[in-house]
Amino acid sequence: MNENIVKRNRLLAETVIKGLESRNMTGYYAGNKEEALKKALELIPEGSSISMGGAMSVHEIGLSEALKTDKYNFIDRDAYEDKRAAMLAAYDADVFLSSCNAMTSDGILVNIDGNSNRVSAIAQGPKKVVFVVGMNKVCPDVDSALKRARNVAAPINAQRFDLATPCCKTGKCMDCKSPDTICCQFLITRFSRHKDRIHVILVGEDLGF
What we know:
Layout: H1 3-22, E1 26-30, H2 33-43, E2 49-52, H3 56-60, H4 63-66, E3 73-74, H5 83-90, E4 95-98, E5 102-104, E6 109-113, H6 117-123, E7 128-134, E8 138-139, H7 142-160, H8 166-170, E9 185-189, E10 198-203
Parallel strand pairs: 1-10, 2-3, 2-4, 4-7, 5-8, 7-10
Antiparallel strand pairs: 5-6, 6-9
């Protein structure tokens, strides 16, 4: 990666981390995927029960595979015949893993969800939430973060699942009410009432969508 981009990411991450701290959340900076994986494992005690949504960033740093050992109780949603049971198990997990669709430079997290299991677990339930967020998702403010979530993350995810939504064809949000829409619930996390619950690992690489 270009050294100027590396420097910019590191400096911007310092601002984001200060913003997170002001919102009773904890931020960390990892320069690459390997550092991000190491930090995530430091935050997850052995023996923990762990669940996650469909976070590509978590997969991309190798975290989901690293947790599929006897050291952890990883709730693998793909291994459940009853997907609802797997989703409900997440609410009582020690750790929930996620990314975000976008976040602001002063530490506000923005997420859009279809089934809403992910945003509901972020808001309430699991004892700890660990986010893995590439610096490509950092936006100047809430308005631009919402625009990114709706016009970048949502269309790509809809295309990934081959859904029958207008954004699959146009590549941008059409504010649809399609039965397949994944823009059902919007969650803006601006403060955590519970200290040490939300942890955000910022990664100096592009991750996810």
